[in-house]
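User: Fold this one for me? It's DUF1996 domain-containing protein.
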Amino acid sequence: MAAVAATGALTAVFVSGGGKGSADASTERDQFVRIEKVQPNVVNPRPGRRASTGTFTVDCGTNGNGKFSPDNPVAQPGITNGAEHVHDFVGNLAITAKSSDADLAASGTTCTNGDRSSYFWPVVRIDRTVRSRAETQQALASTTPAVTCPDVRDRLPAVPVRARPAVDSRLAQIDRAYADANTRMATGKGRVDADFNESVLTVLRTQRAQLIRGISDSIAAAGGGRTTGLLSLVECDTNYDGMHASMRHTAADVKAKQVATQQVRCPAVRDRLPGVPSQALDEVNRGLAELDRQISDANESLVVTRGNAVLGPLNARRTAVLDRISTAIGRNAARPQGLEKLAPCTVTGQPTASAGSTSALPDPQGPNLELPNNTGGIVRPASVLIQYRGNAARKVVPMPRFLRELTGDAKPTSRGPANARATWTCSGFTDRLSDKYPICPRGQQVQRVQDFPGCWDGTNIDSTNHRDHVAFADTTTGACKKGFVAIPQLRITLSYKIPQDVQVAGQYALDSFPEEDHNPFSDHNDFINVNGTRQMQRIAACINKNKTCR
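Assistant: Here's what I get for DUF1996 domain-containing protein.
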């Protein structure tokens, strides 16, 4: 397992805890480096006597289906358009920010071995207009930061009648905590201060964790069963959406034909239900799961067919399920009125605002799927190498199904650089990784080498911050820390054929959040394991037998 030493000064300048100065994370010539000037820094721990040294390679293509989306289902579950930049997706065809585990398991896939996992990363673009810091600073000066949080109401199961008052009370407290956090965030207008942001998010995170746990307990105590997946709704994020308003997005982009991957948009149902009688809980929950599945099927069809013929059948199926839900409740309580009005869905590009956001976010526009300041033509990877690797100290155990992992940090400016990772290199130079965009020798490809954590806590598939349930192995020994076990360690290597004149001129860059302004140190990658149990056992066995498998 590779470990990376420091590669030089951080490419973003952060505001101190005192809030003086200004953030600076622009993509300019000083953020590019000739790869020959980067010293070798990749350290591979020497395999021990009990090491697992095999590799298992998965071929999921290079996003030939064109599944592009500004959703981030791992770091921002439930928040449509939450990434504010476009991701390449390979593997799972149905996944959106709102997909359930059951939806993922039933999806089609681009992977040749049937792996339904989802692998996704920010796109790279070529933009021959070199950006300047001035534009970002001007946009930031008039921006009031905010927080973005997943919506809890629309992720709940059927709420029993006895639990309804307690659940509603805690949902109201969640709303107040969100409003209070935004009031505090507003004092940071015009600057990016990672320490200040974390102080606000820490308080909000603690409040949400307690309240969401209370909601889960109330539902369980009233006979509704133990809820799942609510843990992922605890974490909120910083939000500088307002910067989009004054950043570059040309009229030609807006008027061009929209070709972003479309999604089905349907009215929320869960937050429109009353307290559900105990006799109807199972049937209502089955109906809610069926509604989710219908949307997921329709979204997968849109990826494959690029059409909107899904709406007629979808709306008819939703009408039938909503009627069954109303009937089930009505047998033992007042029949809900107006649920049938929630049946009609639409097909659009990405919605225009993130849930919990305080400002509207435009859809990706035009043939290049652009968001403001994320401009230029998307460069498809020439190759995508997905490998599961071993551990230098131990045999690996299979990953649990639906494990979430992420690597790197999309927001090292607004959250701090602790989780950011150097990923950039060139083919032929993989003994060194840089936190700057590389300029490669003629004939070599630009590469991003993204290693995921290879240690797991043995229990959880997610955590409140989407990180604590997994960990990176020790960079010297390869060992996992106490309480963690080694799992197949995922490495994704993305290779790009970028003209050398574009590299030298500093004209290629990542899509990013607005405050990052294409900071190369904001590179990141996300993964949800949807391998079946037998397949993951096969992967672990190959690695433990020190074989090379596909």
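One thing worth pointing out: The first helix runs from residue 101 to 105.
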